[in-house]
């Protein structure tokens, strides 16, 4: 196929660069020298593969008419701000040329190739794409060619665009290409094609299926059909799990349920419109209830003491040699023995629980906790953030470039902010101001943090190429807020969360009455 580089088509389309070539399609970046603005455009050339003698003038005329009608049909939707405008269509030497608006940006495929997307980023793409699909579906038009390379994010404003509708491509290839060219179409992107579409019966739910599969791919970086969504717990988190290498990506259970329904094998089990998906997505509020992070711990010895097991009742044979006083004596002895055993178990368990832990004490703020001996601690004194120390996990190997950590902070509160509820509102607003729009923040209640009610705020964020999960745990006691910030890579979050629970389980916050009395005396 002859290259068009440097040539001018239709007296005004200057071919500046070849962008891609696949089978009989060649894509060029061209300059429209008659356009006052937005001079660059995309030109797609489809070269016929049917032998010249078999393509009669009548057949050629019919083919042109079919494609022209389909283009006119698609022109009904290119007025949407997220669909590139179809600008022209012409033929040269038995080849078809489609001209559309050029979107300067990056495809979703290119973004995912660098690194998987965060949950909040994927939700934005879903919302924007679904609004666009809802518009075209109301015009009785299907996209039928949704895949990461056909979703573009514009550089200047990060707007999402859907390109390259499949119906036009399907019509062109069906009428122009020989069977040998049709046999391998979209083989590398079959994961995004719904089962009924593969059987030649596409419906609205086929587009929804494709978008759901794209979202899973964006989150996991895997196209394989062996990627599935499993429940992680009964609350607010789930995982996308790759059965090939057991890699897990943590996502919210609400999003997991939405993606499950979007990608059901049976079309009738899926959402039947883009509006339905959008409605469920809108219920993914910025703040939802997150399970208390300490509720799945194995009961400690204190719990055993608080709710002792009922001792098995034993039958007592009547023995006239034992009188009432003897029976009472033996009962008391048994009770003392049971209590002694329980206390011994408590002491041993507590000793074993923190056997390989060191202790951190801060006399100024009357706070202490235990941390693993292989962790390191750095004492801080930041008057702005209130940070007083940071606990650092050891590097696992030479390739471990991010150390999981826990920051310990203490805030002196003014008299008007003396409750956990008020401080929670301040923390939530502060975090929201620091994160990207539409970032989901999970809020949870903790019943016991050293005997105090506490709250947690958990969210995902990006730091360079790393996807991090961060949990802020805080309580308020006597005009002070005690804040613990746990930060880990998303894929290691659950693993280090267990250690974090254990560390905070050792927390002791001593009273501040003496400090306050001393201030008053002065």
Helical residues, percent: 25-40%
Question: What is the count of helical runs?
Answer: 14
- Strands of the biggest beta sheet: in what spatial order? 13-19-20-21-22-18-17-16
- What overall geometry do the principal axes of the alpha carbons give? elongated
Query: Using only CA atoms, what is the Rg?
Result: 33 Å
Strand content: 25-35%
Number of domains: 4
Please outline the major beta sheet.
8 strands, mixed
Q: Report mean pLDDT, rounded to a whole number.
A: 77
How would you portray this structure in words?
It contains 14 helices and 23 strands. A hairpin with a 2-residue loop joins strand 2 (13-22) and strand 3. Helix 3 (119-138) runs antiparallel to helix 7. Residues 175-187, 285-322 and 513-522 have low confidence and may be disordered. It is elongated, with a radius of gyration of 33 Å. The protein folds into 4 domains: 1-102, Phosphorylase Kinase, domain 1 (2-Layer Sandwich); 104-284, Transferase(Phosphotransferase) domain 1 (Transferase(Phosphotransferase), domain 1, Orthogonal Bundle), CATH 1.10.510; 301-347, no CATH class; 357-521, Protein Transport Mog1p, Chain A, CATH 3.40.1000.10. With 522 residues, it is an alpha+beta fold. It has helices at 57-74, 108-114, 119-138, 166-176, 179-182, 195-198, 204-220, 253-262, 274-282, 301-306, 324-353, 420-434, 493-505, 513-521, and strands at 8-9, 13-22, 25-32, 40-47, 86-92, 95-101, 105-107, 151-154, 160-162, 227-231, 237-242, 248-252, 287-289, 357-362, 367-372, 376-379, 387-392, 405-412, 441-449, 452-463, 466-477, 480-489, 508-509. The chain has an 8-stranded mixed sheet with strand order 13-19-20-21-22-18-17-16, sandwiched between helices.
């Amino acid at each position: 196929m002859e290259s068009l580089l440097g040539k001018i088509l239709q007296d005004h389309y200057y071919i500046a660069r070849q962008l891609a070539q696949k089978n009989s399609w060649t894509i060029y970046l061209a300059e429209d020298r008659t356009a006052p603005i937005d001079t660059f455009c995309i030109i797609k050339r489809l070269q016929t593969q049917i032998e010249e003698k078999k393509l009669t003038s009548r057949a050629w005329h019919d083919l042109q008419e079919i494609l022209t009608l389909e283009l006119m049909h698609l022109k009904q939707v290119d007025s949407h701000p997220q669909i590139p405008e179809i600008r022209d269509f012409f033929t040269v030497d038995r080849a078809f040329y489609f001209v559309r608006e050029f979107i300067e940006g990056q495809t979703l495929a290119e973004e995912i190739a660098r690194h998987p997307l965060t949950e909040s980023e994927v939700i934005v793409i879903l919302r924007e794409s679904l609004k666009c699909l809802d518009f075209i579906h109301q015009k009785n038009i299907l996209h039928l060619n949704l895949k990461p390379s056909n979703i573009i994010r514009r550089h200047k404003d990060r707007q999402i665009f859907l390109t390259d509708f499949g119906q036009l491509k399907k019509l062109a290839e069906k009428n122009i290409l020989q069977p040998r060219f049709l046999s391998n179409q979209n083989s590398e992107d079959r994961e995004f094609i719904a089962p009924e579409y593969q059987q030649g019966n596409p419906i609205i739910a086929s587009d929804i299926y494709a978008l759901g599969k794209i979202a899973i791919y964006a989150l996991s970086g895997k196209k394989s059909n062996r990627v599935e969504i499993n429940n992680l717990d009964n609350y607010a988190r789930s995982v996308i799990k790759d059965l090939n290498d057991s890699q897990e990506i943590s996502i919210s259970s609400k999003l997991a349920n939405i993606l499950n329904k979007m990608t059901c094998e049976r079309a009738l089990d899926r959402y039947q419109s883009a509006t339905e998906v959008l409605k469920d997505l809108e219920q993914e509020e910025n703040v939802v209830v997150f399970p208390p992070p300490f509720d799945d711990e194995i009961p400690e010895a204190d719990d055993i003491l608080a709710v002792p097991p009922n001792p098995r009742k034993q039958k007592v044979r009547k023995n006239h040699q034992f009188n009432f006083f003897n029976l009472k004596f033996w009962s008391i002895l048994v009770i003392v023995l049971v209590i002694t055993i329980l206390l011994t178990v408590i002491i041993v368990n507590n000793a074993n629980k923190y056997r390989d832990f060191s202790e951190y004490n801060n006399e100024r703020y009357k706070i202490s906790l235990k941390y693993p001996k292989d962790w390191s601690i750095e004492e801080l004194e930041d008057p702005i953030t209130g940070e007083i120390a940071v606990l650092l996990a050891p590097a696992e190997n030479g390739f471990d470039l991010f150390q999981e950590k826990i920051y310990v902070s203490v805030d002196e509160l003014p008299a008007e902010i003396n409750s956990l509820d008020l401080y929670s509102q301040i923390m939530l607003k502060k975090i929201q101001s620091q994160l990207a729009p539409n970032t989901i923040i999970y809020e949870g209640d903790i019943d016991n943090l050293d005997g105090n009610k506490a709250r947690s705020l958990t969210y995902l964020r990006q730091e360079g190429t790393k996807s991090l999960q961060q949990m802020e745990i805080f309580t308020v006691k006597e005009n002070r807020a005690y804040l613990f910030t746990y930060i880990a890579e998303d894929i290691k979050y659950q693993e280090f969360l267990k250690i974090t629970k254990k560390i905070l389980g050792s927390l002791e916050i001593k009273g501040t009455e003496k400090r306050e009395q001393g201030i008053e005396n002065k």
